[in-house]
């Protein structure tokens, strides 16, 4: 029985598109799904391989010799071109790179969180990977938005390059590297230690992550290099915190700007909105994150302490 070559082409094309979509099924959250040029080339790589293998198994159904040779040759060309594009990354720019890395990092979060880990050393490593990947996803989402809007592309980083110097071991252990400073997750006890009990607003890298900044009209708290940093709030207590907030301390500034018109999302009874947070250190750091911002009501605060 002779099969239609158009049917064969439709089967390969459909399978290629489906394989591209399947690559995203292992991402941790739907908001980590971005178009990935690298994944598109990988789908073409697999589609070309499938075309050659399937035609080889069904040659008795496809009897046009010249067309079969053309399909095999075309599959080899597409395979080679797609493999070169994947490995060379020649068409991947700043934004393409980050849009590919976000779902890649998301897979690391999913596997690190859900793997059946029993060794405490491996669990510690997995937790560190989760925290790092969530932070980097938030930073990449912020940079994608900044670069695509034309507002955030820069020629060079404004960071002082310090020459390496020999120091005693204890000094090396206590000196923080400014370029690697990021907001770390806070637990409830740490927040209450600075702000006390009651309703707080917070910013987090993702809906599944814990807060990396918590604040009220009176002040806020963040954690840098394992240390809690108390911040003053540059906001009128009568002003709605949903309009954003600026938190400051000596040499530290954190600005949180909710996205205007962004749809609200539910998070464990808390309503959150997409927002940008920009951390600025006078010592030479300016880094932004795209995540979620929300304020708990008094009822939420009361239930969380029970």
TrEMBL record:
Gene3D superfamilies: 1.20.1260.10
Keyword Transmembrane helix attached: yes
Protein name: DUF305 domain-containing protein
One Pfam family from the record: DUF305
Superkingdom as given in the UniProt entry: Bacteria
Keywords: Membrane, Transmembrane, Transmembrane helix
TM ranges: 7-28, 40-59, 66-86
Ribonucleoprotein in keyword set: no
InterPro entries xrefs: DUF305_CopM-like, Ferritin-like
Domain DUF305: from-to ranges: 94-186
């Amino acid at each position: 029985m002779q099969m239609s070559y158009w049917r064969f082409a439709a089967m390969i094309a459909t399978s290629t598109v489906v394989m591209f979509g399947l690559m995203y099924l292992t991402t941790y959250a739907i908001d980590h799904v971005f178009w990935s040029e690298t994944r598109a080339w990988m789908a073409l790589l697999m589609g070309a391989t499938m075309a050659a293998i399937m035609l080889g198994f069904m040659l008795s159904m496809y009897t046009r010799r010249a067309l079969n040779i053309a399909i095999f040759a075309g599959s080899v060309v597409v395979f080679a071109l797609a493999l070169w594009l994947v490995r060379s990354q020649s068409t991947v720019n700043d934004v393409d790179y980050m849009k590919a890395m976000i779902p890649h990092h998301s897979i690391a979060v999913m596997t690190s969180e859900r793997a059946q880990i029993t060794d405490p050393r491996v669990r510690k490593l997995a937790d560190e990977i989760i925290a790092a990947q969530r932070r980097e996803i938030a930073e990449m989402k912020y940079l994608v938005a900044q670069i695509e809007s034309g507002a955030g592309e820069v020629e060079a980083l404004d960071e002082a390059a310090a020459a390496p110097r020999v120091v005693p071991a204890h000094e090396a252990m206590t000196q923080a590297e400014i370029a690697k400073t990021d907001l770390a997750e806070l637990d409830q006890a740490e927040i209450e230690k600075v702000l006390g009990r009651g309703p707080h607003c917070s910013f987090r890298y993702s809906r599944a992550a814990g807060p990396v900044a918590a604040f009220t009209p009176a002040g806020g708290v963040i954690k840098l290099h394992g240390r809690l940093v108390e911040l003053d709030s540059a906001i009128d207590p009568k002003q709605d915190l949903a309009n954003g907030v600026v938190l400051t301390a000596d040499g530290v500034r954190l600005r949180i700007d909710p996205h205007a018109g962004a749809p609200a999302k539910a998070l464990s009874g808390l309503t959150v909105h997409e927002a940008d947070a920009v951390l600025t250190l006078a010592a030479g750091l300016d880094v932004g994150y795209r995540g979620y911002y929300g304020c708990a009501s008094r009822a939420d605060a009361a239930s969380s302490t029970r």
